[in-house]
Structures are given as structure tokens and as C-alpha cells.
Amino acid sequence: MPVVATEPRINAKQNLLYSHNACTPGWKHRLGLRSVNRPVFEGAWNCSPTCLLPRITSAIKREAGDGCGVSRQYQHRLPLGLLLLQQGTITQEELQIVLQAQRTAGHGRFGDWLRIILHMDESTIARSLARQWSCPIFGITDLQPARMALLAPAQLLHASEAVPLRISLEGRIHLAFRESLDASLAIAIERMAGIRLDKGLAMAHDFEEARERIEEADAIPVTEHRVDNTPALEDILVRSIMHSQPVASRFVRVHSTFWLRMWLEEATLNNGIAGPPHSPIDIQDVLIHFDPPAQ
Ligand SMILES: [Zn+2]
């Protein structure tokens, strides 16, 4: 179970020793305080919020890169209709008919209307998309729903229309997208899991089935926050880490959302290393949506 952090009661002399200038697990150990190695953020032990804050600040700077996480660098490519037209799969007239049907209905994806109006099969659509993205089409026969439900918060997967399928025999994550690849999400999941990831597409009905089966499995508890400035973001991160006292934690960004994952007990680690979880027990996710006020 998560260890709830309590402020250690220490006298003035200890307090001096306890300052983060003397911040090594050894000091804490010699002082006879328990939890000699918590909380850990990105591989570093932190004696206090004072000690943790600069690490948080630089991690946010690193993740934000181009201003605080507001950029949406989706790799825009040709819309599906134009792509099929260019590839000679449909005619200009067919394109117009499908677009008109979609517009009149006021809902539904272009791909769905292609199937309805032109009776185009999913594999034709998937092959066209795969050619556009130069990526494989993944099947779902060896889907690992229980394990995949633990890989990333559903909120992030939904936003990018992605679903993880399995960890391959070669130890690589297969991450499937519905229509377009999202490099930001893929890199974040890869860094969080600490193993390599391959991006691909899944056919519509495979995608839906995989998503349903994964959503039925147990997920890691998520706390969500919304902030509009960097100090508020820092504050949530420091509080979360000091409160949960993780033995390992990682921090990444997906578009305008920051994702902190905390491994709370040694048993959740693999030879001391945080990796793709095997169980939702004693792992926590924190999602912080960064939404700066319009200028
Ligand atoms: Zn310290």
C-alpha cells in the first residue's frame, strides 16, 4: 500500500544535518529515520521539498522545450480522402459523394462513410494509411489486455486514438493508432516504460476490439489536475511526490499534458528498475493538463 508521508519530527541539530546540502541516503540512515531511499524522482533521492523542487523545475523545462507544453506537433499528412484519390483508389466523384454524405449526416469518420457509401473494406483503407505513414498494420491475435491496461493512462490513449497491443517477444511495445501516428505519445510511452516501441496502425474493428478488451482490465489509478501556470504545475508535482514517497518515478509530456508515474514499493520494480508494470498495485499516475490563459 502507498506510504502516506508524514513530516519527520526532528530537532534543530538533526534539521541542520537534514538539509538537502547533506542530501544522501546515508545521512537519513544514520539519523535512524525510516524510508532511507524515498522519495525518488528520476533516479535521485530527495530529502525534502526544498531538495526536490529544483529537480522538478529542470524536469519541466526539459519536457516543455518550446514553451510550456502547448505545442501540438501532430504530424499532419494528407486527409484520408485525398490520399485515396491520389493513390487512385477512389475517383474525384466518389470522394465528393462520400464527403457530401459525411457533411449531411454531420457526424462519423470519413473512413466509416467510405465503408457505408462505397462498401470499401477496412483492409483497403488500412493499407492506404499504412503506406502514407510507412508503418505496419498490426493484428490483435496476441493482444495482452491485462498488461496493456497498465502501460499508459486511458485519457492519453483516447486523446491520440491509440491502443497498445502487446510487448513482443523481442521486448518491444506495439502501439497501434486508428488513423494517424502521434509521435509525442509514442515517445512518452517509450520513455515511461523504459523499453523500445514500434508504431503501427490497426484496422478499425481490430482497434475497437482491442480498446474494449483493454478498458475491461484493471488500470493504474490516475489523479488528474488542470493548471494554467508553471508554479502550480511544480506545486502539484512536489506535493504528489512528497505525499506518495515513491521508490521510483518518471516524468514525461504528451502535447499539453504532463504525466508523472510513481512506483510506490520495491516489489513493483524489476531488479530495482522501473519498467512496464505487471500489476496496478502500488503504482500511481498523475496527469496534469497545462492550459495557459489566452494572451
Ligand atoms: Zn536533499
List its traits:
single chain; 295 residues; alpha/beta; GMP Synthetase, Chain A, domain 3; 3 domains; four-stranded mixed β-sheet; three-stranded mixed β-sheet; 9 strands; 41% helix; binds zinc ion
Quick recap of the structure?
The chain has helices at residues 12-17, 25-30, 49-64, 80-86, 92-105, 110-118, 122-133, 145-148, 154-160, 183-193, 204-216, 230-244, and strands spanning 40-41, 44-45, 162-167, 173-177, 197-201, 222-227, 248-254, 257-263, 283-290. It is an alpha/beta fold. The strands form three sheets. The protein has a four-stranded mixed sheet with strand order 6-9-8-7, sandwiched between helices.
Characterise this structure.
There is one protein chain. With 295 residues, this protein is of the alpha/beta class. The chain folds into three domains: 12-67 and 220-290, no CATH class; 80-133; 145-216, Type II secretion system, protein E, N-terminal domain (GMP Synthetase, Chain A, domain 3). The protein is 41% helix and 16% strand. The chain contains twelve helices and nine strands. It has helices at residues 12-17, 25-30, 49-64, 80-86, 92-105, 110-118, 122-133, 145-148, 154-160, 183-193, 204-216, 230-244, and strands at residues 40-41, 44-45, 162-167, 173-177, 197-201, 222-227, 248-254, 257-263, 283-290. The strands form three sheets. Strands 6-9-8-7 form a four-stranded mixed sheet, with helices on both faces. Strands 3-4-5 form a three-stranded mixed sheet. A hairpin with a 2-residue loop joins strand 1 and strand 2 (44-45). Helix 5 crosses helix 6 (110-118). The longest helix has 16 residues, at 49-64. The radius of gyration is 23 Å and the shape is elongated. Mean pLDDT is 86; it is low at 1-18 and 67-74. The structure holds zinc ion. Zinc ion binds at residues 20, 23, 46-48, 51. Zinc ion is lined by residues 20, 23, 46-48, 51.
